[in-house]
Design goal:
By secondary structure, this protein is of the alpha/beta class. The chain has two domains: 1-70; 104-201, Response regulator (Rossmann fold). The chain has five helices and four strands; from the N terminus they run H-E-H-E-H-E-H-E-H.
Length: 202
């Protein structure tokens, strides 16, 4: 092999080596850039998932808070209201006690543990107590019949669901039946409600 051929082989080898290194570097850079892109994509995906999770938790808490705080609306003046200044009918020595003799009083909602006291109060005034709790099976179908049979309706709105509240309010407005919506279910407030109903029915 003469010198010319040797030079030609050496130059070809050098070109091949350079081409191989360039190819190797290009492949390495390609994989390197791909790894960077994949890394950023993964970060972006995890960031989106984290944001969605935070949004879900925030919306869930806001909905739960809204549901807890969304109590029945306060009673409108078109339906009988109990004034805080009304004298209590729980005083047995009171001479001018309300008379609800032979009247059926429908109590909607309220606390179960206070039902015996509600009944005792109403019966001491000559009335009869009907109860609608609304949380027992088959109880929903009884509401229209109870509303029709009752002479007056009393409903503590802190212990009744919205559907029942609006149904009772609508029925009493349309029928003209005396109705007292109470802010609280305690016995004193209940007694003032009965006093208001008795005055309306007199």
């Amino acid at each position: 092999m003469n010198q010319l051929q040797k030079n030609l082989v050496d130059s070809t080898t050098s070109i091949r080596t350079q081409a191989y290194k360039r190819t190797e570097k290009s492949i390495f850079l390609s994989y390197y850039h791909r790894s960077i892109i994949i890394k950023y994509l993964l970060k972006y995906i995890f960031k989106i998932k984290a944001l969605n999770l935070l949004r879900f938790k925030f919306n869930n808490q806001r909905t739960t808070h809204s549901l807890r705080g969304n109590r029945a609306p306060q009673f409108k003046p078109k339906i009988l209201s109990c004034s805080p200044t009304c004298p209590s009918i729980l005083n047995k020595a009171q001479t001018n006690r309300p008379d609800i003799s032979n009247k059926y009083v429908l109590c909607i909602g309220g606390r179960g543990k206070l039902y015996p006291e509600y009944r005792c109060l109403i019966e001491s005034l000559g009335g009869k107590l009907l109860i609608y709790r609304g949380n027992q099976k088959g109880d929903t179908d009884r509401l229209p019949d109870l509303l029709t049979c009752a002479d007056m309706v009393i409903c503590p709105i802190d212990c009744v669901n919205h559907e029942t509240y609006f149904a009772v309010k609508h029925f009493c407005k349309k029928s003209g039946k005396p109705c007292a919506l109470l802010d609280h279910c305690d016995l004193t407030t209940f007694g003032k409600g009965i006093e208001t109903l008795a005055g309306a029915a007199a």
